[in-house]
């Protein structure tokens, strides 16, 4: 066995062992990460203005309400004997036959957890399902059609749940975190305190109190999935998970050392194959008869 072939065989053996070890422990870590993930949900959206949920009628009518002394478009939601007026981003066409004109700002959704890859297909009927109405809002003080649409990180979502026993829950306001993991509404609240010369407490992510009713949307939660139904299609790719199997979370290690070990081992296997092939080619040249 010539020198190149011997080096190639050694490189292949060492790299194969490294790849096997790295792949095994990588798979263990990925499995541990996946076990920490919350339930995934199957969502069903409806666009009709007259529907039913949990054997109760639902009607949705366009109207107008007053917010901070100014008129604003709204939807009147009636569920059984309960009713609420929800401020919305003005639709392109008011009183349209269905809610399709609201698809990028207001949706009626029903969802259920997926277990073992399955979910009961009985939206708006089975108690296993939950029904919500969700509306996207732009930051107050900015025109909804111009700067309000541009300032994406300032968007908030208001969620109303239609309870199976009847009634509409109190609204919850939620918001995606910014790229630094902060809730923008909390950042702005502290900016106002700073301008007023008042003491500024730490952010909730740093152990400080919440100064606004706005809740952060947690990754992989049903709120995360629901809010995406009202995000303009051009902006959906903006909302990416910050945690994954590579980086890991506080509850599960990421791939860590297993990723570079496996990667370099695969590269070593390729190099080993190249050395073996080079050694084989060298032996063929040496064995070929010399031309006279």
Kindly describe this structure.
The protein is of the alpha+beta class and 292 residues long. The chain has two domains: 67 residues; 159 residues, no CATH class. The chain contains five helices and ten strands; from the N terminus they run H-E-E-E-E-E-E-E-H-E-E-H-E-H-H. The strands form two sheets. It has a six-stranded mixed β-sheet with strand order 1-6-7-8-9-10, sandwiched between helices. The protein has a four-stranded antiparallel β-sheet with strand order 2-3-4-5, with no helix packed on it. Strand 4 and strand 5 form a beta hairpin. Helix 1 packs antiparallel against helix 5. The chain starts with a helix and ends in a 5-residue tail after the last helix. 23% of the residues are buried.
Task: Give the tags.
292 residues, four-stranded antiparallel sheet, six-stranded mixed sheet, 2 domains
Write the layout of secondary structure elements.
Elements (H helix, E strand, L loop, with lengths): L2 H33 L4 E7 L3 E4 L2 E12 L2 E10 L2 E6 L18 E9 L15 E8 L9 H4 L5 E7 L9 E4 L8 H12 L18 E3 L5 H7 L29 H30 L5
Parallel strand pairs: 9-10
Antiparallel strand pairs: 1-6, 2-3, 3-4, 4-5, 6-7, 7-8, 8-9
Concise structural overview:
This protein is α+β, with helices and mostly antiparallel strands and 292 residues long. The chain contains 5 helices and 10 strands. It has a 6-stranded mixed β-sheet, sandwiched between helices.
């Amino acid at each position: 066995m010539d020198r190149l072939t011997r080096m190639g065989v050694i490189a292949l053996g060492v790299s194969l062992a490294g790849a096997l070890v790295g792949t095994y422990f990588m798979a263990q870590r990925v499995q541990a990460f996946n076990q920490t993930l919350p339930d995934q949900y199957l969502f069903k959206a409806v666009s009709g203005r007259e529907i039913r949920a949990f054997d109760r009628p639902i009607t949705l009518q366009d109207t107008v309400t007053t917010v901070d002394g100014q008129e604003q478009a709204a939807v009147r939601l009636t569920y059984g004997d309960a009713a609420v007026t929800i401020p919305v981003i003005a639709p392109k066409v008011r009183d349209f036959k269905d809610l399709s004109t609201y698809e990028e700002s207001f949706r009626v959704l029903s969802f259920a957890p997926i277990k073992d890859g399955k979910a009961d297909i009985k939206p708006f009927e089975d108690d296993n399902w939950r029904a919500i109405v969700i509306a996207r809002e732009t930051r107050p003080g900015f025109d909804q059609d111009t700067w309000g649409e541009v300032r994406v990180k300032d968007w908030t979502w208001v969620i109303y749940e239609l309870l199976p026993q009847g009634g509409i829950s109190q609204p919850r306001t939620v918001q995606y975190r910014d790229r630094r993991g902060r809730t923008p509404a909390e950042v702005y609240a502290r900016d106002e305190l700073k301008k007023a010369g008042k003491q500024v407490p730490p952010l909730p992510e740093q152990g400080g109190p919440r100064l606004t009713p706005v809740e952060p949307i947690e990754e992989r939660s049903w709120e995360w999935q629901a809010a995406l139904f009202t995000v303009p299609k051009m902006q959906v790719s903006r909302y990416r998970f910050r945690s994954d199997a590579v980086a890991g979370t506080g509850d599960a290690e990421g791939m860590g050392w297993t990723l570079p070990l496996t990667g370099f081992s695969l590269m070593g296997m390729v190099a080993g194959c190249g050395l073996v092939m080079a050694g084989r080619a060298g032996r063929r040249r040496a064995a070929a008869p010399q031309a006279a």
